[in-house]
Design goal:
- By secondary structure, the chain is of the alpha+beta class.
- The protein has one domain (about 10-85): 2-Layer Sandwich (Hypothetical Cytosolic Protein, Chain: A).
- The protein is built from three helices and five strands, in the order βββββααα.
- The protein has helices at about 50-55, 60-65, 70-85, and strands spanning about 10, 15-20, 25-30, 35, 40-45.
- The longest helix has 16 residues, at about 70-85.
Length: about 90
């Protein structure tokens, strides 16, 4: 049986490489807009560390990675989602 290598992605905040399953995925879909944890399109990944998701420049980094403007409503939803995401056991 062929062993699969883990799919590695880089956190846009700390620039460290992690397994894709351990990161929060933010995707810009051309039909649905910006969605979390699913979808195909331009994506950015953020790791679980509090330092990364509470970075003061995270909004700017997301805008640059997704090549789009983020609405203030999305930023509020993102902050709620990331706190609930980190409350789950890892």
């Amino acid at each position: 049986m062929i062993q699969q290598n883990p799919v590695l992605r880089m956190c846009i905040s700390c620039r460290k490489t992690y397994d894709r399953k351990d990161l929060l995925k933010i995707t810009k879909d051309h039909k649905q807009g910006i969605i979390l944890q699913k979808g195909m399109g331009r994506s950015a990944y953020i790791c679980k560390s509090k330092k990364c998701y509470s970075d003061s420049k995270i909004k700017k980094k997301l805008q640059k990675a997704l090549k789009t403007f983020l609405e203030p409503e999305f930023v509020e939803i993102f902050e709620k989602e990331i706190t609930s995401y980190n409350n789950y056991p890892h």
